[in-house]
Amino acid sequence: MLRAFGARVGRRVLIRRGVRVHWPWRLSVGDDVWIGEDAWLLNLEQITIGNDVCVSQGALLCTGSHQHHHPTFEFDNGPIRLEPGAWVAARSVVLRGVTVGRGAVVGASAVARRDVAAGAVVTAGAGHEDRPRGDPGQRRRGVRRPDECGRRAAGGVRRAGPRRHAGLPVARRGARHRRASARCRCGRAPRAPCSPGGSPG
Fold it and tell me: In a structure prediction context, what are the per-residue pLDDT tens digits for the chain, which is 201 residues long?
């Protein structure tokens, strides 16, 4: 149907139900493309979708805008281009004049207001982040809190600190000595046995 109205659609393209295309003759879709349910392609200007692109459910590609300071509210439109391998996730928005680079991601509910570099990721709430897709720095690491025992801090850097469990107080009960209830900040009881002289061994 889209081809009948002038759209250029490649091979193995899956367009799900509820997809809206404003002007089919201003749409070009490559091969192996998936466009999810209720996606809206508001193509007052050209929308070009490269090969292996995924446009997820409810996403909006909006080529239209207005000059809000103009007395007659004139159009301020611009084309949109999705490079091969890009992913526009669910309920995200790509605004007019934006190019989403090769392999880049516009995350769920995020808004791409300007060009997205190849391999970069734009996330909702954090704004535009030109960070490589798949970079280990993007994944949350199990970082332990640094403490006086000198355990590893964020990024694997070992914090300098006092000697492990050194200088902990000792309580005296009669002729016998035992460890005090004081603990290191890491929550562990001191390991060093008490010496008969009343100080840690």
Answer: 888 899 999 999 999 999 999 999 999 999 999 999 999 999 999 999 999 999 999 999 999 888 888 888 888 889 999 999 999 999 999 999 999 999 999 999 999 999 999 999 999 876 555 556 565 444 433 333 344 344 444 444 444 444 444 454 544 444 444 544 445 555 555 555 555 555 554
Please list, residue by residue across 83-115, b when 16 or more beta carbons sit within 10 angstroms of its beta carbon and e when fewer do: bbbbbbbbbbbbbbbbbbbbbbbbbbebbbeee
What is the total residue count of the chain? Answer: 201
The token pair at 168 is 């902990």
By the 8 A CB rule, do 133 and 121 touch? yes
Look at the pTM and tell me if it is higher than 0.70.
no
Contacting residues for 119 by C-beta, under 8 A, at least 6 apart? 101, 102, 103, 104, 132, 133, 134
| CA-to-CA separations, 24 to 31, 44, 78, 80, 92, in angstroms, rounded | 17, 10, 16, 14, 21
CB of 28 closer than 8 Å to CB of 8: yes
Distance linking the first and last C-alpha atoms of the chain: 85
User: 168: how many CB neighbours lie within 10 A of its CB?
Assistant: 16
Of the candidates 17, 7, 89, the residue with the CA atom closest to the CA atom of residue 47: 7
Give the Å distances, CA to CA, from 47 to 28, 99, 131: 6, 10, 25
Look at residues 37, 35, 36 and name the one whose alpha carbon lies nearest to residue 50. 35
